[in-house]
Design goal:
By secondary structure, the protein is mainly α. It has a single domain, classed as de novo design (two linked rop proteins). The chain is 61% helix and 0% strand. The chain contains three helices and no strands. Helix 1 packs antiparallel against helix 2 and helix 2 runs antiparallel to helix 3. It starts with 13 loop residues before the first helix and ends in a 17-residue tail after the last helix. The model has no long low-confidence stretch (mean pLDDT 75).
Length: 113
């Protein structure tokens, strides 16, 4: 039988840990963006990335499992926004002929939504 891990709080959740890695990766990636994107794409991508672990933490503090599940569904939307923005960045960089910095691959435990 599989041994189950006890979840004491949101920090024990793999999805929260991966969300924190996403935040770090987005901050590293956006450092190379041009200054004129500081209040545009950079800000939007960073806010979308931060919202993933934030929604998980906020949802875990809710009183019911149903509310928690609702908050767990929110990061799906935000991570899709980050993916769409990353595509925009690739297009932007290719037009500028400046290759974007590549992100490391996700951990082997990471599962797409």
């Amino acid at each position: 039988m599989n041994e189950r891990t006890t979840i004491r709080n949101y920090k024990d959740l793999l999805v929260w840990q991966e969300g924190m890695q996403l935040v770090k990766q987005i901050y590293i990636l956006t450092r190379s963006f041009p200054a004129d994107e500081k209040f545009g794409l950079i800000s939007q991508m960073r806010r979308a990335a931060v919202s993933v672990p934030s929604n998980i933490a906020e949802g875990q503090a809710r009183k019911t499992t149903g509310e928690f599940k609702q908050f767990l569904a929110m990061p799906k939307v935000h991570s899709r926004n980050s993916t769409l923005n990353s595509s925009s960045v690739s297009n932007y960089h290719s037009q500028r002929r400046t290759p974007p910095k590549t992100l490391p691959p996700p951990s082997p435990n990471f599962k797409k939504c």
